[in-house]
Design brief:
The protein is mainly α. The chain contains 15 helices and no strands. The protein has helices at residues 8-27, 32-36, 40-50, 55-74, 80-105, 111-118, 137-156, 162-183, 199-213, 219-239, 245-250, 254-267, 278-286, 289-310, 316-351. InterPro entries: Acyl_transf_3_dom, Acyltransferase_3.
């Protein structure tokens, strides 16, 4: 991506996204009755963490923005599309394939599911008559399917139509989801994990990338979207139960889309985070977020029996703190080693032939 369009705030958002995912999966070690039995402050905090599943959708918005930016900035360069795919492969495949191998060797996934992983179909394993066996992989399949299709969509779309195309994808998604629930065969009624029902998040990031390169001021738009997203979440929590079941499902992600798109617009103009602040920590975490995302669930699952053995009388909140705290530290350590050895080597090889 052109460095003129690189904003330090984007790293903060990526770090926030992975932190949300970690907190959500950490909170999943507690059942709803266990959370309800906690003291009110702890219960409220854990309920907030339970909503952090949406962090993965922030990744989708960021991917839409960053990938569209790369494609737009390099569209006039010879061999740009091939270079894009080489870079994506070098960035994703080494650590991903290593993780798939680790999961298979430790018996976490079966041999048939390895094929699902290799084909990046983890968001629809039913196509190969399989069930999901490692949760985090579903969103990576969505990302890979986006990488495969979006460069060609962007190339075939006339520049003056790109904004309209992204807006159409965003505004048309609720109706598309409702149509799937109303008329599609049961096998096609999933509106949570398929790429074609999550395209609005990628399109939102892409739209911001297009507008940003056209010189539009986005800070005001970002604040409006943040306010609209916050009001949408409040309305959803208070009154969404009055909607029909299908419309409640269709609109469930809409406030998050507004929030994340607004945050992206605002952070594009944010100043570099100061050393020692939370923002600086999130920015540092963003650089190893891919490895952390790959390995954290496996680490949490391996840590859970150990906590039960060492602290058999641990309270639910202590169990959450043990697994989330120690598991996150271990995941960060593994991801840091991977990022600065295996992943960095492949990235260096991918860029070497293109140096001036």
């Amino acid at each position: 991506m052109n460095q003129n369009h690189r904003a330090p705030g984007l790293d903060v958002l990526r770090g926030l996204a992975i932190a949300m995912v970690l907190l959500y999966h950490g909170s999943c070690v507690l059942t709803d009755p266990q959370i309800a039995a906690l003291p009110p402050p702890a219960e409220a905090l854990l309920l907030v963490f339970k909503q952090c599943w949406s962090g993965v959708h922030l990744f989708f918005v960021l991917s839409g923005f960053l990938i569209t930016g790369i494609l737009l900035d390099t569209q006039s360069q010879p061999g740009a599309l091939g270079h894009f795919y080489v870079r994506r492969a070098a960035r994703i495949l080494p650590a991903y394939l290593l993780m798939v191998g680790l999961l298979w060797l430790t018996g976490t996934v079966t041999t048939p599911y390895v094929l699902v992983c290799l084909l990046f179909l983890c968001n629809m394993p039913g196509l190969l008559a399989q069930q999901s066996e490692y949760g985090p992989f579903w969103s990576l399949s969505v990302e890979e399917q986006f990488y495969l299709v979006w460069p060609w969509v962007l190339r075939l779309c006339r520049p003056e139509w790109r904004s309209a195309m992204c807006l159409a994808m965003i505004l048309g998604m609720p109706l598309w989801k409702w149509a799937l629930l109303a008329w599609a065969p049961p096998a096609f009624q999933d509106i949570s994990y398929k790429t074609w029902v999550l395209a609005d998040f990628f399109a939102a990031g892409a739209l911001v990338a297009v507008w940003h390169r056209q010189g539009h001021s986005l800070s005001g738009v970002g604040r409006v979207l943040l306010m609209a997203g916050a009001l949408g979440l409040a309305w959803q929590m208070a009154w969404a139960s009055n909607l029909s079941s299908s419309w409640a499902q269709v609109l469930r992600l809409s406030p998050w889309l507004l929030l994340f798109c607004g945050a992206l617009c605002v952070m594009l103009t944010a100043k570099a985070p100061r050393s020692g602040t939370l923002s600086a920590g999130l920015a540092w975490l963003s650089h190893i977020s891919f490895g952390v995302y790959l390995v954290h669930q496996w680490v949490y699952d391996r840590l859970a029996p150990w906590v039960s053995l060492v602290e058999p009388q641990a309270s639910p909140i202590d169990r959450f703190l043990w697994i989330t705290g120690v598991g996150t530290l271990l995941s960060v350590g593994i991801a840091w080693c991977s990022r600065h050895t295996l992943e960095q080597w492949f990235l260096t090889q991918a860029t070497r032939p293109h140096r001036g």
